Structures are given as structure tokens and as C-alpha cells.
Amino acid sequence: MNQDYIVPDNWCIIEEGFEKDRVMQSESLFSLGNGAMGQRANFEEHYSGKTFQGSYIGGVYYPDKTKVGWWKNGYPEYFAKVLNAPSWIGIRVKVNGEELDLNTCKSVRNFKRVLNMKEGVYTRSFVATLPSGMEIQVNVTRFLSLQYDEVGVIRYEVTPLTEKATITFESYLDSSIENHDTNWEEKFWNTLDVKQVGNRGFIVAETKKTAFRVCTFMENRLEVNGVVSNIQKVNQKENYIGFVYETSAEKNQTAQFEKYAGYVTSFNHPKEKLIEETEYLLLKISSLGFEELLKDQKEDWAEVWQMADITIEGDVKAQQAIRFNIFQLNQTYSGKDARLNIGPKGFTGEKYGGSTYWDTEAYCLPFYMATKNAEVARNLLKYRYDQLGKAIENAEKLGFKSGAALYPMVTMNGEECHNEWEITFEEIHRNGAIAFAIYNYVRYTNDFAYVPEMGLEVLIGIARFWHQRATFSKDKNKYVILGVTGPNEYENNINNNFYTNYIAQWCIKYAKECLDKVKTSYSNDFERVWKKTNLSENEIEQWLAVAENMYYPYSEELNIYLQQDGFLDKELITVAELDKKERPINQHWSWDRILRSPYIKQADTLQGFYFFEDHFTKEELARHYDFYEPFTVHESSLSPCVHSILAASLGRMEHAYTFYLRTSRLDLDDYNKEVHEGLHITSMAGTWMSIVEGFGGLRMRNGMLHLNPQIPSQWKSYSFKVNFRGQILKVSVSPKETKLLLEGISLQLSINGKDVTVENGKEMIVSL
Ligand code: BGC
């Protein structure tokens, strides 16, 4: 099967030609989302071929009971899942009584899908020859409104090409929906009400256990040559409502069907009033109509791009890829609602349960901070603050006490909700990323006020956890951290993972630094938090004893930190020496063999060098990079971006570029052969970082932006923008020079090691 069938284009994702084998891949690639809901690009009409149906609502989840072979104390009780929600896109089409189904058509010609990322609109067109020989032209336009984020719009046009025909549309809502990944083959929705009011249909359904109530709705309109048709028949079942419309169209005359549909949920409205609220919404929507909604959509996306776009000249595939990444990140999370977060697959599939991982703090925060604003970034932090109580409960379940907080590796509501102990649960390093995000946010936005308000309590909980989790080793006369999994999930239950130990001591020191600063500058908050957390000087001293005497595995001979105790006992054969047929190893090797091997799934020790770059010299970085990268298989989508950034910072642009390509076109070219399951959303933020932090060399140091731009030899130029403390800086890089342009007042920054001041509207040119 052809993996890279997407036609290169600056602004669009394009597929040409219908191939049944690629339907599921394209369903992922052409997914739509608006931050509040999202859906795979399933066909509206009936399709009897292989498909993966998916429609999801932000924040609506189900705690599926964990399935493990042998239950042990401390296991998370459930695995939370983003739910496949009732479907509203369905429109069955019949021509002279014969059903349109691309799987059974005699032929499908001129098939084309276009995802116009500039406008946030997805179109599909084709000429189908039905089994009877009747030929029809179909054009479909669909979008999920950014402005009215409960609403999606479909325009479905059918034109008979052979002769005059009777065309029937059955537009429906269906709540008999299932998740592919249920642990116990259960259905997760109870349908409460199925209702018709005139041209409008409603299904009210509620999730089991979590009781999220959702009104899925539709309003339809069929028109041929200015004549509007009424509903002919209503098909109503327990979990289904369908309105049948019929019309006749002359040869080459178009029957135009419009559907306004979506979800109104108890997440945002009173439970008992969902239908009422929906009717109110539909009044507004239908008065606007298709064209007006489309116009709004284009304007709203233009606004997103105005700030978030990255341009690349000289490489269409790279340009298409970076825009695809930025587009998907914006489809997944808008930052409007601190209850929502970013699932690794966004709204494009079920894997990873749509839950929040350390990915948000470690990979996504910088993107939203720089392309939106401090408020959006603050919402991402607040999400964790709001879940602090649960993080404390999580730690208590494992035997920690006195307010120690262990944030979950995977969560929907603050509770740990994953069913793999060693691979996921033991990754306690995530606590570090959550503290690091607070630091990263404050250093970028200068909003230290977040710390006394919320962040400090989180930092205290985390510091307490590390203090209690470390063990004093008499043998080493140091504190050690035993039984963990680092970011490299191909090693489980190891002792003294360098990254974990390092970030643990850093968290403690940062918590202490923040405590001191809050004490001096925010004394009221300090007292409140001090009392609330029951903290004492004595406890802080104990934390610091751990931080200052932390053990790091080190090889004197190689002059490097070891990923964990005993790493050098492994058979150190590099990845390059492996037979290509055995890769990816996670699809070819037993777990036993993987665990014993030296192969690293994703940046681990190097993740530490990425976060704490300024704690190490360039020589140290080069030594560690040269040692670890050759053992790294990059089998997590989060791996290439960090390596790209580190390679760029070492001036190794060829490496940086190779890694960049891999991260940016991971899904478009289906490197990991799994795009049919959904897209890798969180690593898309890593792609953005590869350009801005990698090639652009953007860093924060001493309250100031630092740039050190380089450009891959394959590109003519590239540009990006960052919102830095309310001022917008545009950076355009070519092999000769860097141009800086400011929208704001004035900004002092460092470029190539030299301090400069950029004034509003005056372009500054710096030679490379
Ligand atoms: C990675 C984790 C990541 C998760 C979700 C895994 O494959 O190893 O680091 O958090 O995917 O993206």
C-alpha cells in the first residue's frame, strides 16, 4: 500500500483517487476538530467497507474497569476512555432507490479529498457509477465551527449525470455507538430521549457511570433549483432518528442537502434543559445559514494563522507538514476551557484514551504559550492545580502521606487511569514535567503571580513526593530512587534513572526557591499556603537533604551519566548494526528481549539535557548525544523532535533536519504504520519546537529571548512568530540573514550572542 499518497501543497492536504485500502488512514488525516469536539473523516453516506467510525466530545469520558491478569494493590481501578459519541454526520443517499455506497459502486472516478487548513474546511468530491449504471457527481463540504463550537455543518450535493433521477436523503442521528477499545465489550451510552420537533431531530443520551448528558441534534434542508422539500418520513428507533427527504433532479441539476448538527452537553449547560438550549442555538445557527457560517469559519481560522503560521520557502512538503501540525494542534485544543486538555491522539482516534499525559507539560505548553497567549498556557497549568487533591489521593493510595502528590501518568479527572503498571504507572518522572512546566511558564510569561496563587501548592505536593519517594542508601551514602520507568519505556522497574533523579532534585530546589520568593513578595499568600499545607522549616530541610545528596549513575570511563544503574552491562550494539527487518523492534521482538536490550524508545537522559540545557556544557551535551542517540530507536513519536533540537544546538544541521522530517511528516507519510488509528497530536507540538527552538534556537535566559537561527540547506527561508509577553515578534531566517519585526512597543533580545533592541514596525536585519 502506498504510504505517502498525500499530494504536496502549501495549504491543503489532498488525496486523489479512491482506494479502499487507504480509507482508514485518510479518516485520520482528514479529521476535523474545533477544540470542543472532533471527528474522523468518515463518509456521510453509508459505507460497507472497512472504516473506523469516530466522533468525540472534549471532556466526555468513561471509566472502563481495568483489565489485568493478576490484580495487585495500588493498581488503577479503571482505564478512562474518550468516548465515541453519538454520530451526527450520517446521510444515507439513494438514487432511484439504489443506495450510494463507495464500496459497491461499479466505479468511482475523480475522487478527491481536500482539507483546506487555511480555512478549516474539508471537501470531498467524486463521480460514482452505481451498480445500475447510473452516474452521479457528489460534492461534500464539511466543517466544525470554531465560533459556535457545538455546531458542525455539512453541505452534501448530488447531481445525476446520466438522466433525471429521484434522490432520497435520509439524514440521521445514531446513539447506538460503541468504542473499539472497550475492556468488557460494554456499551457506554444510555439513550434517554429521541425526539422530533419540525425539521429538527434530537437524541439525548447519557454516559454510564460518569453521567455526562449530551443532546445530539440536527436540522436539515433540501433544495433543488430553489424549491425546498419537506420531510417525507421519520424513522425513529430506540437509538436512532432519521428524516427522509425526497426530490427529483434533472440530468446535471444539483440536489443540495444541508445539515446543521452537533452536541449540546451538560458539560456546559443545565442537564434538564439540553433540548431547550439546543433549540435556542439552532435558531441562531439557521438564521445565519451555510454561507455566513462558512465566512465566519474562514475569518476565525485566518486569525489563528495570523499568529501561529510558520512559512517555509523552497520545500513544499515541509511547508505542508508544519501547517498540518499547527492545524491539528489548533483543532485539538483552543485553550478556552481549563477543564479540557490535549490527548495524544486528540479527536482522531481512541488510542491513549484521549487522556492527559506528561506530553502536555513536556511538549505542548511551549506551542500554546507562544502562539496563543499566557492565559491559554495558564489554563493548561490550572488543569493540574484543579487536580491537586486527586494527585494527593493517588499518592495516598500508594502509601505516601502528608500531602505528597503524585500526578497521574494518564488521566481524565485527576485520578490515575491506566492499566499498565510498569510501562506507565512507574513513570513517576511525570511529576517532574508538571513542576518544570510551572517554571517554563513563569520564565516565559513573567507571570510569577501564578505561583502564589496556584503553582506553589502543586510544587509543595511534588517536592513532598520526591522526598518521600527517595531512599537513603547507606552503601552509596546518597539518596537513590528505586523501581521506576524513565521516559524510555523499553526499560521497566529500573533503579536510579538519571533523568528521574535529576528532575526530582531540581523540583525540590525549585519548590524551595519559589517558597522563598513568595515569602518575601506575597506574604499573605505565603501564610495561606503554609497553613493550608501544614509545612514546616524542618520538613523543607529534609527535602533539601535529598536534593543535595541525590545519586546519579555515572561512568568515569566514558565520562557520561548513565541512563540507569547497570546500563553498561548491556550488549552495546548500536541501532545501525541491527537488521532493518527487525525494526520497529516493538513489532518484531519479545518484550523480554526489548527490556534486556540497550535500545532506547525516546529521549531519556537526553530529555534531561533538553530541559536543563544550561546546567551542562556543550561538550557534555555532545558526549551524551553521541553515546545515547546511536542506541535510540525513536519508536515514540515524542523522540525525533527532542533529538532535532539537540542536534541543532550542537550545530549538526543535517541530523537536525533528518529528525525534523521524521517528526513533521510522521503522520502524513505514516512512518510508524499506524496512522489509521489516529494522529500523533502531542508530538506535533514537538515539530513546532523543532523549528522554533531547534532551527531558530529560541531560548529564554535571564528574562530575555535568545535567538540563534540556522537554516537547513534544503530551505530558502522560513519564518515564525512568537507572542512574548504581549508583543509579537516575527523571525524570518534565510541563509544570509535574519529579519526581526515587532508588533508591540520595543523588545530587547539577544541574537547570535549579541543584545539588540527591536522597535515596533521597524524591521531589523541581522547577518548570519
Ligand atoms: C510514550 C510516552 C507518551 C505516550 C503518549 C508513549 O508511546 O512513550 O512518553 O506519554 O506515548 O504520547
Automatic annotation (TrEMBL):
It comes from the Bacteria. Residues 698-758 form the Glycoside hydrolase family 65 C-terminal domain. GO terms for molecular function: carbohydrate binding; hydrolase activity, hydrolyzing O-glycosyl compounds; maltose phosphorylase activity. It is an enzyme of class 2 (transferase). InterPro entries: 6-hairpin_glycosidase_sf, 6hp_glycosidase-like_sf, Gal_mutarotase_sf_dom, GH65_N, Glyco_hydro_65_C, Glyco_hydro_65_M, Glyco_hydro_65_N, Malt_Pase/Glycosyl_Hdrlase. Its EC number is 2.4.1.8. Substrate binds at W358, D359, K601, Q602. Keywords: Glycosyltransferase, Transferase. Residues 323-689 form the Glycoside hydrolase family 65 central catalytic domain. The keyword Glycosyltransferase applies. This is Maltose phosphorylase. It comes from Capnocytophaga cynodegmi. The gene is mdxK.
